[in-house]
Structures are given as C-alpha cells and as structure tokens.
Design brief:
With 467 residues, the chain is mainly α. Helices cover 58% and strands 4% of the residues.
Amino acid sequence: MLPPAMRKLWGGAFAKGSDELVDKFGQTIQSDLNFWQEDIIGSVAHARMLGEVGIITKEEAQQLIDGLEKIHEQGPDFLELDVEDIHTAIEVRLKELVGEVAGKLHTARSRNDQVATDTRLYLNNELLRLVRHIKKLQKVLLNHAEKHLDTLMPGYTHQQRAMPITLGFHLLAHFWALQRHGWRAERLSELANFSPLGSAAVAGTSFPIDRHMTAKELGFAGPIPNALDATCDRSYLMDALHLCALLMIDLSRISQELVLFCTKEFGFVKLNDSVTTGSSIMPQKRNPDMAELIRGRSARALANWNTLAIVMKGLPLGYNRDTQEDKPPLFDSMALTKDSLDLVALMLDSADWQTERMSDALYGDFSTATDLADYLATTGTPFRVAHEIVGKVVRGCQERGIVLEQLTTESLGEIAPEVPSDALSVLQPSGSVQRRESFGAPGPKAIRIQFERARALYAEKNFTKLA
C-alpha cells in the first residue's frame, strides 16, 4: 500500500501529483519545527490586521486568532507531519479547529514573506538567548580573574614563553573578546529587526493591507521598504552564522588552552571530573573531551557560514528555493554556540588552577630579558642597542648553563661588562609584572583599572559599549 500523498498548500494547476522522492526531498517540516511558535505569532498578527483593515470581517479574524492560540496552547505534538512545511502543518490544524475560514488566513501573503518573517522573529529571540549565555561566561571569567589578578604565569607568543603575566590578566583577555561578540549580537538584532510580512511573493499585494501595523505588533522597528528585497534578503542570517563562527573560534581557542594547560607537560590546571571523560583501556586517563569537542565542532560553525554564503552567491533577486538551505545551518550553529558557551563556563568555573606550578614555570625561561633591555633603555642606551646587548647576555647564560635569575655581578661582568650590576634587580618575574603599568597591562594598578571597567560593563544589562 502506497503512503498517502504529502499535503501541500498548492497543486490546483497540476494534472498529477509530484513524485514521492520529490516530496521527500523538498519537505522541511522537521527542520521548520524549530520556529513553529514564530509562525503562529506572525499569523496572529496577520489575521488581526486583515480584520482591522476589512479584508476579512473582525469576527473571522477573531476565529482565526482563537484557533491559532489554541494551536500554540496545544504545542507542536498536535501538528501533522505528513505536510510540506510548518506553514502547511499549522494551516491544516487550523482548518480542523475553525473550519473553512482557515483558508482566509493566507489572504495577502505568501510563504515567501511568511518564512522570512518567521526567520527574523526566530533570530531575534535566539540572539536574546545568546547574549545571556555570553554574560554567563563573562561572569565566570570575572570571578576567576578577580581571584587571580596577582597569580603569576608565563605569557606566550608563537606558543613560546614571552613575558610574565598573571592568570587574571589572561582570563580578562577572553572577557573582552566576549564583550565584542555581545556587542555584535545586539547590533545584529537591530539590523534584522525589520518586517518582511505583507511583501507577499515578490511584489506586495493589491489588498489594502497595513504592513506598519503588523510590524509594530510583532515588535519590529518597521516594515522593510522594498517587497522584493524583503523576500530574498538573507544577509542577516549570514551575519548570524558569522557571529556564531567568530564565537566558536574564540571558544575553540579557550578550549585549546585548557587542553594544553591540563597536560602533565604544562600542569597549569586540573579539570573537574564532571567535565572530563575516561578511557576504555587506560584506567589512569582523564581526558578533556568537552574542550576537544568544542575545538572540533567549531569547524561546523565555520562550515555553516560558508554553506549559506555559497548558496547565496549566485542567486538573482526574488525568492529561490535554494534559500531553504538557510535554516538548518542557522539552527545548528545557534544551538552549538549556546551549548559551547555553557560548557566553557562549566569547565572554567570548576577548574582547579595550579598556581604554584604556573609561578614556578617562569623560573629560568628568560622571559624577563625584555625587562633588562627596557632597563638599559632608561639609562640612555638606544633600545636597538640594548636589544643587542641583552641578546648577548642570553647567549652567554646559555653557554654557561645558567639562567637570568642566576646571574651575579661577576658573571654579568664577564658576559656584558657594559651592563651595570644594578640591572640584576629587574630579572625577577614578579617585578616584571609589577612594572608594567601602561593602560591594559598586567601591573597591579593597571589590572585593577581594567578589572573594574570589565565588571562595570558586565553589570550593564546590554552590550552598548565595546570597552
């Protein structure tokens, strides 16, 4: 027995039904269920407007609204899935609840402007959720940064020891990256907050609709001025996918640091049992799998942005079915990014920082060489000359099998007699950090100013400022 034909909102001009494979290939109902509520909300606004302007009677409009609200109350489990898309599923259910008047709901609109409206409503709701997840991770970073403003650790460039810094300074760097992402999310919400509803298929409608009314009811800043642009624009979704990709890149960088820092070779942090996994063969293993998965799945977020960019690059104006491929990447990237933000927050919040190990790691790594060059520059030596002299000091230490902290007046005089013995006072890592008081540096005063600014921005409800 053949399965029943998939229900559609079109077909009167067709002599026979479409092939089963065609139906299956074009069906989007499972994916569309992600914005079933947005489709109902948009339909309620449209029905109310149709009644207010007299396209249908107010009684008919109220029947439609009551039916739609009943569907919303019942939830998606009451929707039929043998349909083409979410629009069909809701209209089929609406007809079951209110009868033939359900057929009037689609007056003066098309699935083209309907799906564009649904997507913008969905994105605005998701962006609100996303910024809450960003704030959550920022709070964790602030809490741990405050505890470790003075905790010494190596700073790296090229993944090689560079200068002494503090753990608080390091964590605040991630805070500021998230601040930019929060700002981007809110600016994107402003950019996407315009209504396509009423643009119909491509060129508006001959019915006397009120697009400003529906835009206002749905919380949009206003209707998109051009109906053609309204139905085919997907740039705001590309912005959303780009935002997720950027966020996932930074979360992947944090994850990579955790993977490295929890190794025996680094030993800077111990990750909690609740965020690690074991091995099926090696009983001693504690693997940072969540950090690795975030690092790996960031590739998916990058690919999702690339997918939609490739879909859109060759499309002429007007709705094209290709853009059906805009929503699965969006749903995937949004869910992945929110989960990853929460997982990074969980890993960091339960992290056991090995402060002595981080501090001890600075000994003998030559990371105060720049301090020595800076000292010489303060005595009037041109910095390029000072750089050359300190390079000679480093080489001399390595040839003697000693480190900078082991230099004495005698050994320094043998290696570089032009360097005064007073310079030995700048070779301790703790002093290196304390001297770096330029704006944005890890010195005690500078880091406190930075921390207080970060805390003030976190306390604000919105991401109105970048710094």
